[in-house]
Design brief:
A seven-stranded mixed sheet has the order 5-4-6-7-3-8-9. It is of the alpha/beta class. 42% of the residues lie in helices and 21% in strands.
């Protein structure tokens, strides 16, 4: 009973579903309105629960998360000052080496999430930086798979938001297989197409040797 109560207290709600065993989510959305519909309650619940928000956003619109917070009725200045919210741009993270280096980004993610378990971090990553960028698809797919090894070591929540209108079908199928949880059509579910990272990476290595 005590274990059940602790598990319930530790659970996180996203898009009407519960994140418990897995907290690495592929959120397929189409446009800003659909993204807002699922992210606004997630952000609100996090702030009210005392969690910490961490955003990885478009370098051209770094203030967008702050506008969201203000729209939801919060004072972004106070949240930033209290370090309950941090905003990092694509140029500071995914592309800080001038291109995408998956090893560098894995080190960054480990640094962001590998510290203290409390307060819980809710990381929202806008993956639009990879849309229409040549030569990054394979590395990004492997990065998402390898990130599962890191996410298995913490209880923070990671939402990778992919706008389906900006990526081709082949990429979407592969990226789907690297996330244990998926939001698709506005519904959160445990992903039946998820492949454990070691198996997924071995499969890609064999394919590459062929």
């Amino acid at each position: 009973m005590a274990a059940d109560n602790a598990r319930a207290a530790d659970s996180v709600t996203f898009a009407g579903g519960v994140l418990d065993r897995y907290r690495h989510v592929c959120a397929f959305v189409s446009g800003r309105a659909e993204a807002d519909a699922v992210l606004d309650p997630f952000v609100r619940d996090g702030i009210d629960a005392g969690d910490r928000l961490l955003y990885l956003v478009d370098t051209m619109t770094p203030a967008s998360p702050l506008r969201r917070l203000r729209r939801l009725g919060y004072d972004p200045g106070t949240l930033l000052e209290e370090r309950r919210c941090e905003v990092h741009t694509w140029a500071d993270t995914y592309l800080r080496t001038g291109g995408f280096d998956q090893s560098d980004m894995l080190e960054q993610i480990d640094g962001m999430l590998g510290g203290a378990p409390s307060p819980r971090i809710r990381l929202v990553a806008d993956m639009g930086w990879a849309a229409e960028r040549e030569g990054v698809s394979d590395d990004l797919i492997e990065f998402e798979a390898r990130a599962n090894f890191l996410h298995a070591r913490h209880r923070h929540v990671v939402i990778c938001a992919y706008d389906t209108s900006r990526f081709d079908g082949a990429f979407i199928i592969d990226i789907l297989r690297t996330h244990p949880m998926v939001l698709i059509g506005g519904i959160l579910q445990e992903n039946p197409f998820f492949v454990p990272p070691a198996e997924f990476l071995e499969e890609r290595a064999v394919r590459g040797r062929g």
